[in-house]
Amino acid sequence: MEIPFDIGNISGPENARVAQPEALGRAIKNAKRPLLVVGSEILDDDLIEKAIAIGKKGIPIAATAHSMKGFVDRGYTENVHLTGLHELANNIESRDWMGFDKTGGYDLIAVLGGIYYSTSQFLIALKNFATDPIVRCISIDRYYHPAARMSSVNISRKHTDEFKKMLDKVIENI
Fold first, then answer.
1. Sign of CA dihedral 174, 42, 112, 61
2. 10-residue block means of pLDDT along the chain (174 residues)?
3. Domain for residue 17, yes or no?
4. Taking a C-beta distance cutoff of 8 angstroms, is the pair 146, 2 a contact?
């Protein structure tokens, strides 16, 4: 397993703390309005089932890039919203956006399966510009994301089974 800082740009003086999967799951569970943001790598790694399991816990999903295809192919579109990552960042940063369900903004954003450099910039934007309400960001991805508040460690693709077990622990704690 790699050290948590193998991949990453520095997003400012305060970087994410590495968290155990159980703590990441509890953070999602304890949020009043969490949102899971997924990207196209959930299709490459066949992680779509993990995202669906999180969705079935009542967590809305923002499907970016072409990740929506995985949900449609599996017949799971309940509370899954197709959106662009940049559009989503702008919406979350807006004081006026009421979320996909029109009942209020989100207080926790969890990222999974996005292309690293895009997700990194998304998290940096939210860290620096989402102010009302304050949005906490966590990464349950295979990559350490310094701009998140909490993040998993880097887990290389050759350890995909280990990564899936880590996600199972996250899901168990939601």
1. negative
2. 53 82 98 97 90 97 95 96 96 92 95 94 86 83 93 90 96 98
3. no
4. no
